[in-house]
Design brief:
Elements (H helix, E strand, L loop, with lengths): L1 H20 L12 E7 L15 E2 L2 E3 L4 E5 L6 E3 L5 E10 L2 E5 L1 E3 L9 E8 L6 E9 L2 H4 L6 E6 L7 E7 L9 E6 L10 E8 L2 E6 L2 E6 L14 E9 L15 E13 L2
Parallel strand pairs: 4-7
Antiparallel strand pairs: 1-18, 2-8, 3-4, 5-6, 6-7, 6-18, 8-17, 9-14, 9-18, 10-11, 10-17, 11-12, 12-13, 14-15, 15-16
The structure holds calcium ion.
The site of calcium ion has 6 residues, from strand 18.
Length: 272
């Protein structure tokens, strides 16, 4: 309580200073106080699996999207790189009847936030048919099914379009091709040559999408054609798919292996 009051006092002083300095401008987005509540920096020795207290695995293939890879929990597909990143690596190899392997990690049953800023710093792979994503599913998926559970796609990307990322929202009556979606085009760069920060700021009645703190998409409940299903816990997913409806299959130009490097995942809640 003491720390809370101290923070309020400091906030009050900062707010007065801010208002004094910016009396003509609208409130800035940076006024929102964010408190870090969960993070993984992926520190540790190369080859180690990510922290089992934070991450589990979806093991299998297809996932309803005609994905071609078999997702595993092997270090060849998902492990720390020893430089503070998690590497999710798609490989061309024969495994469990599929021609590719990769990984899909989840915070299901371990960390399932409702609302907050969910962000990750990521360097993406590239190539025709490579489909990395940083996204969330409602934790009631087992009882109500998809898309009633809700899906928030913080970042999706087609490996054949290395300057474009997509943010989307799927729910009942607005899913698949009818999802609400927007894209961000990187003018002077590619998403596979540098790290970029992808985030949503998710609160009751609003979800905002960001790339490198540039807001490019906002959705309010009034904009969805069906029920708003984003006021309950969701879990976080990171994966690299090979093939599937969103990207099509790899071709002779696609180089394997392809790796998505994740420097960190952080979740903030809004303070008062
Ligand atoms: Ca890191």
């Amino acid at each position: 309580m003491t720390r809370y009051m101290g923070r309020l006092t400091i906030l009050g002083i900062l707010l007065v200073v801010f208002l004094t300095m910016n009396c003509d401008s609208n409130p800035a987005e940076s006024e929102i106080i964010l408190e870090l509540v969960w993070q993984d920096e992926f520190e540790g020795p190369a080859g180690q699996l990510p922290d089992p207290a934070k991450w589990g695995y979806d093991i299998g293939t297809d996932w309803g999207n005609a994905q071609l890879e078999y997702d595993t929990d092997r270090p060849e597909n998902v492990s720390l790189d020893g430089d503070g990143n998690l590497a999710i690596t798609a490989r061309e190899e024969s495994y469990m009847g599929q021609s590719y392997t990769s990984a899909r990690i989840v915070t299901r049953d371990k960390f399932e936030p409702t609302y907050g800023r969910i962000e990750a710093r990521i360097k993406l792979p590239t190539g025709q048919g490579i489909w990395p994503a940083f996204w969330m599913l409602g934790n009631d998926i087992e009882t109500v099914g998809w898309p009633q559970c809700g899906e928030i796609d913080i970042m999706e990307y087609r490996g054949q379009e290395p300057q474009i990322i997509h943010g989307s929202l799927h729910g009942p009556g607005y899913f698949g091709a009818e999802a609400l979606t927007s894209r961000f085009y990187l003018e002077n760069g590619r998403f596979d040559t540098d790290f970029h920060v992808f985030a949503v700021e998710w609160r009751a009645g609003e979800i905002r999408w960001y790339v490198d703190d540039i807001r490019y998409f906002t959705i309010y409940p009034s904009q969805v054609s069906g029920e708003w299903v984003f006021d309950h816990p969701f879990y976080i997913i990171l994966n690299v798919a090979v093939g599937g409806y969103f990207v099509g299959p790899p071709n002779s130009t696609t180089v394997f292996p392809q790796t998505m490097l994740i420097d960190y995942v952080k979740v903030y809640r809004e303070g008062n």
